[in-house]
Design a protein that fits this description.
Elements lengths: L1 H7 L1 H23 L6 H8 L3 H13 L1 H15 L2 H18 L5 H29 L2 H11 L1 H22 L2 H22 L16 H9 L2 H21 L2 H7 L4 H8 L1 H16 L6 H20 L2 H27 L9 H30 L3 H13 L1 H5 L5
Length: 399
Amino acid sequence: MKNDAHLTDPSSYRWIILALSWLVYFAFGLILGSIPPLVNVIATDLSLTYSEMGIILGSVILMFIPLAIPVGIGIDRFGQKKMIALGILLVSSSAILRSFAFSFDTLFLTVLLFGVGGPTISVGLSKVVASSFEGKERGLASGIYITGPVIGSALSLALTNSFILPLVGTWRNVFSLYGIIGFLIAFTWILLARESTIGPDQSRIVLPLKNRLRSLLGHKYVWMVAIIGSQFFLVFYGFVNWLPTLLEAKGMDPATAGILASVPPLVGLIGSGIIPAASTAGSRKPIIIALLLIEGVCMYLVGITSGSFLLSSLIIYGIVSGALLPLMLVTMMDLPKVGAEHMGIASGLFFSIGGTMGFIGPSIVGYLTDLTGSFLPALILLAIIVEAMIIPTLFLKED
């Protein structure tokens, strides 16, 4: 009884739900990051081109486009626990089923299943943080939980070729192992997670759903934050997911390329843990502009440098890019008319637009690389798009 009372105490349970959220997002990142280090192995085994592998890499987020807003509505109305549990179960099933793929079509469909479960995790966990934390703690919590997928992806990138693949024998067994880890974390979430809210109970919201949708979707700064934040998905799926293959094209062996490709997400923990927590509502615009500027330059430098310059570019890129997603999410949370009550729908819009960019990014990189024989033209295009996001940021009003 004492333990139950402790778990339901909002002052302490918010940290437990944050830890559970981190684990769920860790599994998300682990499975998400499992394909990039295996691109060449899978492409050779299934006779796929880079253009086809680009579509596969983008398909993990393709279903965010139609599902993110409906999922956000469902989470706002029916709560977080069941929706997030469903999401992690689908994501884990996707990993298991990939091990049976035998063609482009079958691999595409099994990876697409990840995109069906993914929105409930990404949208749901942002709602959990908005509902469990207030004030500066909200920025701190956003910075903490967003490290889950970062560390999960980094471990996939660093260990898949250097340790896991030699251990389990085939790329198919790699996916199965990561799927089993996801199912264990899903069981932990189902066992321990509780609904947690700040402010009025979700069931007592007076505004009808249609009015809330009209209010949020008519809020130009909600759209602006979603559009600016979409560059994270463009870059993560278009640049980071291709990074192991890009480094192999520079002459690195797969194990070394995977380890080096894990540097940006790992050092991104510095940016995600410090910058969002140190920022306050109304003062984030200049920080966002500076981060976008540096991010685009670093991507270009990765394409043209080697040795210590390449490593330095990856480190700096990792720090600034690691800060951008939690910074944009906490900016969204603090916008007028959003807050904890409407974060499900608002973040649904955020991830829907992000899903579009997340699919376009790797597809463009794969196509341009097949077309030109080099990754550099694709990196230049990605960098230009990132820098273009500075323009709407100049007009952003946070309050």
